Amino acid sequence: DGSLAFLDILIHSDLSTSVNRKPTHTDTYTHYSTAAPQSTKDSLIRSLTRRAYNICSPQHLHKELTHIKQVLINNGYLLTRITLIMERTKNSLGKAKTPH
């Protein structure tokens, strides 16, 4: 399809970018029910969200954020917590890359 993977970035033929995952990636992260501190769990949400905003071109951002939400839900995270931390992260980064 004319895309080029470079580290965790997928460069598309139109030179837009999105997050690249290797075929062996399982989307398994620290489950919400583990004894890990809440700060560690929130940090996971923040880091995945920041990566999406930093890597994705606007046309790919919504799809990536939707993927992150679903992956976190599959790992036991509450949608309300995911949404809260993602919104705070977006606000801390500024609104320059708001999805359309």
Walkthrough of the structure:
It is a single chain. By secondary structure, the protein is mainly alpha-helical. It is 50% helix and 9% strand. The chain has helices at 38-55, 58-74, 79-93; strands at residues 4-6, 9-11, 17-19. Strand 1 (4-6) and strand 2 form a beta hairpin. Helix 1 crosses helix 3 (79-93). The model has no long low-confidence stretch (mean pLDDT 93).
Describe the structure concisely.
This protein has 100 residues and is mostly helical. It is 50% helix and 9% strand. A 3-stranded antiparallel sheet has the order 1-2-3.
The main sheet comes to: 3 strands, antiparallel
Count of DSSP E strands?
A: 3
Determine the fraction of residues in helical runs and give it as a percent range: 40-55%
Number of helices: 3
The N- to C-terminal Cα distance equals 24 Å
Which band does the percent of strand residues land in?
Answer: 5-15%
Largest sheet strand order: 1-2-3
Shape: globular
Query: How confident is the prediction overall: mean pLDDT?
Result: 93
Uncertain residue ranges: none
**Which series of helices and strands comes N to C?**
EEEHHH
| Class by alpha and beta content | mainly alpha
Rg (C-alpha, Å): 14 Å
Name the descriptors.
3 helices, 100 residues, globular, mainly alpha, 3-stranded antiparallel β-sheet, 3 strands
Question: What does the secondary structure layout of this molecule look like, with pairings?
Answer:
Layout: E1 4-6, E2 9-11, E3 17-19, H1 38-55, H2 58-74, H3 79-93
Antiparallel strand pairs: 1-2, 2-3
